[in-house]
Automatic annotation (TrEMBL):
It holds the Pfam family Lyase_1. GO terms for biological process: L-arginine biosynthetic process via ornithine. InterPro entries: Argininosuccinate_lyase, Fumarase/histidase_N, Fumarate_lyase_N, L-Aspartase-like. Coiled coil: none annotated. GO terms for molecular function: argininosuccinate lyase activity. Residues 1-97 form the Fumarate lyase N-terminal domain. SUPFAM superfamilies: L-aspartase-like. It comes from Homo sapiens. This is LP3236.
Amino acid sequence: MEKFNASIAYDRHLWEVDVQGSKAYSRGLEKAGLLTKAEMDQILHGLDKVAEEWAQGTFKLNSNDEDIHTANERRLKELIGATAGKLHTGRSRNDQVL
């Protein structure tokens, strides 16, 4: 069933807009006082690294990545640790569906 629901094969091409959306969202969280500037900067730097990997063709998908959102979130957490989880604050997966 997980393979049936996975859309990563199709939406992997959306990596750039997903990263841009996450960057904008992190800026909004900082502006709302839900992230410190240091946390936002850490997230933005991590997202830059995620984008760099996609652009260079070195991003490695995981068999558990359902879609572009979970793939990018997983990699961000690998890069920056627990702070990555704060990016999901107040965010619904439905907000990210195109």
